């Protein structure tokens, strides 16, 4: 859990970055639903890797 404002802001910026990449795919001319779903899956995979990395980011 974030313990201070800086940590919260970093987490929010990461989330915004993921959403921005998905939006970029979705806003392409002739983008298909499949392409958008694949972009979402890619972002979920990236988040999962960060969540379950070894060793953890924070060893508190």
SSE layout and pairings?
Elements: H1 5-26, H2 33-51
In short:
The protein is mainly α. It has helices spanning 5-26, 33-51.
Structure write-up:
The protein is mainly alpha-helical and 60 residues long. It has one domain. 68% of the residues lie in helices and 0% in strands. Helix 1 (5-26) packs antiparallel against helix 2. The chain is elongated.
What distinguishing features does this structure have?
60 residues, mainly alpha
- Measured by DSSP, the beta-strand proportion falls in under 5%
| Count of structural domains | 1
By secondary-structure content and strand pairing, the structural class works out as: mainly alpha
**Low-confidence runs (pLDDT<50, min 5 residues)?**
none
Helicity range: 55-70%
> How many helices in DSSP terms?
2
The helix/strand series, from N terminus to C terminus, equals: HH
Rounded to the nearest angstrom, the distance between the terminal CA atoms is 11 Å
How many distinct beta strands?
Answer: 0
Mean pLDDT: 85
Calculate Rg over CA atoms.
14 Å
Largest sheet: none
Silhouette: elongated
